[in-house]
Specification:
With about 120 residues, this protein is an alpha+beta fold. The chain has three helices and five strands, in the order H-H-E-E-E-E-E-H. The chain is elongated, with a radius of gyration of 19 Å.
Length: about 120
């Protein structure tokens, strides 16, 4: 059974306005602490769950696959080719090596929530 705290709503959606400090960054520890409060498991278990989820996301993305979270968004790995760049200080031309980058595309639901 999930306990409801000031930061949660009966309809299952989360309302951060009661607990989050505006202008500050959220850390893994903050997420784990909120899981601890709402679910009622130990702080260590909550921290382990957060770490497990993040490690699963990293492993999937490292393989080059996408992560799609309904109502939140998609994490996609893109390959960028080699290209020429410039050192902004000296203007000297340098080569930029090919690499893979992770991009996040928020869902429409998430965009509406952020903009409301």
């Amino acid at each position: 059974m999930v306990k409801l705290s000031p930061g949660s709503r009966r309809d299952g959606r989360f309302d951060e306005t009661d607990w989050w400090r505006k202008g500050e960054s959220m850390r893994k520890a903050d997420i784990a602490n909120e899981i601890y409060k709402q679910v009622g498991i130990s702080k260590n278990e909550a921290a382990d769950i957060v770490e497990l989820v993040l490690n699963m996301l990293k492993a999937v993305l490292q393989k080059g696959d996408s992560v799609k979270i309904a109502g939140f968004g998609n994490f996609v790995v893109r390959s960028k080719g080699a290209r020429k760049g410039r050192n902004p200080r000296t203007g000297e031309e340098i080569g930029i090596t090919p690499r893979r980058v992770v991009t996040f595309r928020p869902s429409q639901v998430f965009k509406k929530y952020v903009n409301s």
